[in-house]
Amino acid sequence: MNGKPKIGVYVCHCGTNIAGTVNVEEVRDFAASLPDVVVARNYSYMCSDPGQALITEDIKNYGLNRVVVASCSPRMHEPTFRKTLESGGLNPFYLEMANIREQCSWVHEDPIAATEKAKRLLEAAVVKARNLEALEQKEVDVEPSCLIIGGGIAGIQAALDIADAGFKVYLVEKSPTIGGHMAQLDKTFPTLDCSACILTPKMVDVANHPNIELMTYSQVEEITGYIGNFNVKVRKKARFVDMDKCTGCGDCAEACRLAGRIPNEFDEGIGMRGAIYLPFPQAVPAKYTIDKENCLFLAKGKCGETPKCQEVCQAGAINFEQQDEIVEFKVGTIIVATGYDVFDARKKPEYGYGIYDNVLTALEFERLVNASGPTGGKIVMLERGKKKKKKEEEAEAPKVPKSITFIQCVGSRDKSVGNEYCSRVCCMYTAKLAHLVKDKIPDCEVTIFYMDVRAFGKGFEEFYDRVRREGVRYIRGNPSEIFRRGDKLVVKAEDTLTATPLEHETDMVVLSVGLVPRSDNREIIDILKLSQSSDLFYLEAHPKLRPVDTASDGIFLAGVCQGPKDIPDAVAQAKGAASAAMIPMAKGKVKVEAQTSVVNEETCRGCGFCVELCPFTAIELVEVNRQGWPVKVARVNEALCKGCGACVAACLSGSIQQRSFKDNQLLPQIKVLGVK
Amino acid sequence: MAEATQTDFQPNIVAFLCNWCSYAGADLAGTSRTQYPSNVRVIRVMCSGRVNPMFVVNALQEGADGVLVSGCHPGDCHYMQGNYYARRRFKLMRNFLEYLGIEPERVRMSWVSASEGAKWKEVIEEVVEGVKAVGPMNKFQRRQLNW
Ligand SMILES: Cc1cc2nc3c(=O)[nH]c(=O)nc-3n(C[C@H](O)[C@H](O)[C@H](O)COP(=O)(O)OP(=O)(O)OC[C@H]3O[C@@H](n4cnc5c(N)ncnc54)[C@H](O)[C@@H]3O)c2cc1C
């Protein structure tokens, strides 16, 4: 800015809010005595139109190039007075405020002490204002497209909303099909709608939507850039099946030499598949995938004379030469909807999961009761790890359990496994599964061990009540052990309502496992620099007011990746994330922080301290030519910098500075405030 | 006589507050008309992570009797990690000052959230009492050096 500072100072009375305690005339006269102050005024309400007009008039008449307003908190009216400066033709960042209301007149009754403090605060503002600089409020264009990571119900819903609004969506799903956990469920609490019936139409909509580019069996490899302009690199893994040719007929899967010999992940290992497979009949896309770890031809190099699948495929879709493909594209916003894992029940060895065939996780049990599951929805005793009998007729009819026992809070509300939180869905899905048992095997005895029943949602308490009336027995107590006695399982527990120790015999135990952060969560954290809350789910920007935002602009969260929730909540959050992502896309432009850090490349020694500690990866080392020598210096990407100033405090040479909070702006404040 | 000076002594304390939590908390104390001693003068920074540990020394050199740095509670930083950086730097600086013979009561760090107006008052009262107890700071004097 041009030459000498000419500062105008405005002391606000705020009616009597300030003037009732602080002697505003005294403060004004003091201000007038300070160097570089060319005009000082006091006025009843500075924020009013005439108050603001005083400033714009003075800018014109006195040629002011700095303005100090002593009034309320800058958190209140800084935006107001910045606009005043702008309308007076002055760069809005030439404003400094002294907070003499919230932090002075309102908190100190003694007029002398309050007036003294007000003067000090004002002086600190004036000395800072002297060194303020004009800043540019930059705007960047927003690419009208969104990347959604994860194709569970949350990702699906967000994709459909955004695509329906007319924006382009790239939906990246790691597994061969979208649908996530919801696709594995049978019925859904508390209304008992069939999960597939409400989910699969949405899956098909995603596949057919002209604005959605679906990439399954794919993984995000790298994301650079910032809100409005993210560059995304995705690896589409080879599925060894030509997606354009595959008709989804399934001949290959039947022919595969390993058909029925590999545990199907989708069926939680209860059902089997071949090396070429479709996770489930309604999978989207309805295209087969060869699992290269198991495929005889790909893993061992030999599959009989010729691979069976290739032999039978009429469409000629099998392609063993297929390679991973890397695709790159730009998006303006990102929604993370990567969902969850269920708690690994092996971490509670006292429950015998993995030892006893008929100790199941609730997700396994979902597959067992599912009409399209491996048993066609028949609840039967499991014989795990047994080789499939050659001929179906030789196998005896599987036994039907006469009693089933559920254990709640397995891996939730349990400090011993590091999970303090409640998973929010288990009380209800257990009630649902108990109901389904009663529905399918009416004389089956159903017992639920619980700590507390949390039936907080819409229709939950009613549903819980209904299930109890169906004859399901609830016992309050956290079992200590499960062991085998003859052909029965014994649950050892204490009924804490009657303080009676008990041993409960049962045929089958279902562990109501909690929802935990995905074991591969770090992949996305490393790519997007997301934070985790103490439960290790992804952290939202504010627990109440910004529940779908992350600390990084343009990146949003939806579904269980942010914390345990049921389908309605996951869908609501997905809709929230979708609309949040659409705001910058609809506007087409975003303002970026102006009070960013800036490097003096002449003095920077290129140590990289700032690079390492920047939480937003806004700083990088670049090579520049310094008097003929190539040297490394730090450079700030202003679009990424959020203006915290952490780098400034770490810089040993003072080469990196934060605009509006530079050392030469703060040190004079320290000086005048330090003086006794 | 000496005793009288001790009680009359009104310390001058410079405080660095982050914009999002502690500054907002101090504003809330104002909105709630919470009364507290007027000895503390605030410098607003966007994040406690901006507070260079040398600022603490600077303030003491310039005549402040005490220094307070206040930011968001651990885990709540608007910029994710700034308050952790501040805590680490502050701790080192405090150890160093103690080594130089500066009473640890003079330098304090606190976490005050935007909803903790009442806590802000408590912090101020504690800091003021603590500094009063150790008396005026006169160990550092900024002298004009003539090279
Ligand atoms: C046993 C059980 C029963 C339940 N019953 C009910 C019920 O009856 N009613 C109800 O409302 N809720 C129920 N729930 C809860 C329900 O499963 C969840 O609320 C819902 O599935 C959450 O959906 P989501 O999209 O957030 O996550 P998910 O369903 O986990 O979907 C996440 C998707 O993201 C993909 N993904 C993960 N990481 C990546 C990556 N890095 N890149 C690309 N893709 C990735 C995954 O492959 C997956 O497809 C139940 C949960 C369990 C465990």
Characterization of the model:
Chain A is built from 18 helices and 34 strands. With 676 residues, chain A is an alpha/beta fold. Chain A folds into five domains: 7-129, Rossmann fold, CATH 3.40.50; 145-237 and 324-339 and 518-585, FAD/NAD(P)-binding domain; 251-312, no CATH class; 342-385 and 395-516, FAD/NAD(P)-binding domain (3-Layer(bba) Sandwich), CATH 3.50.50; 597-659, 2-Layer Sandwich (Alpha-Beta Plaits). Chain A starts with 6 loop residues before the first strand and ends with a helix. Chain B is α/β, with parallel strands linked by helices and 147 residues long. Chain B has one domain: Rossmann fold (3-Layer(aba) Sandwich). Chain B is built from five helices and four strands; from the N terminus they run H-E-H-E-H-E-H-E-H. Chain B has helices spanning 2-8, 22-31, 53-62, 82-99, 117-134, and strands spanning 13-18, 40-45, 66-71, 107-111. Chain B has a four-stranded parallel beta sheet, with helices on both faces. The mean pLDDT of chain B is 90. Chains A and B meet through helix 3, helix 4, helix 5, helix 17 and helix 18 of A and helix 2, strand 2, helix 3 and helix 4 of B. Flavin-adenine dinucleotide is lined by residues 149-155, 172-175, 180-182, 185, 188-189, 219-220, 337-340, 342, 362-363, 366, 425, 429, 432, 518, 523-524, 559-560, 565-568, 570 of chain A.
Defining key terms:
heterodimer, A: 676 residues, Rossmann fold, FAD/NAD(P)-binding domain, 18 helices, 28% helix, B: alpha/beta, 4-stranded parallel sheet, 5 helices, 16% strand, globular, binds flavin-adenine dinucleotide
The greatest interface between two protein chains, and residues involved on each side, is: A-B, 49 and 46 residues
Strand content of chain B: 15-25%
Largest sheet report of chain B: 4 strands, parallel
Label the overall shape of chain A.
elongated
Strand proportion of chain A: 15-25%
Strand order of the largest sheet of chain A: 10-7-6-18-29
The multimeric state of the shown protein is: heterodimer
Instruction: Assign the CATH topology of the largest domain in chain A.
Output: FAD/NAD(P)-binding domain
How far the N terminus sits from the C terminus of chain B, by CA atoms, comes to 41 Å
What is the helix/strand order of chain B? HEHEHEHEH
Which radius of gyration of chain A do the C-alpha atoms yield?
33 Å
**What is the total tally of β strands of chain A?**
34
Query: What distance separates the N and C termini of chain A?
Result: 33 Å
Q: Give start-end ranges of low-pLDDT stretches of chain A.
A: none
* Bound chemical compounds: flavin-adenine dinucleotide
The shape of chain B is globular
**Helix content, binned percent of chain B:** 40-55%
CATH class of chain B: Alpha Beta
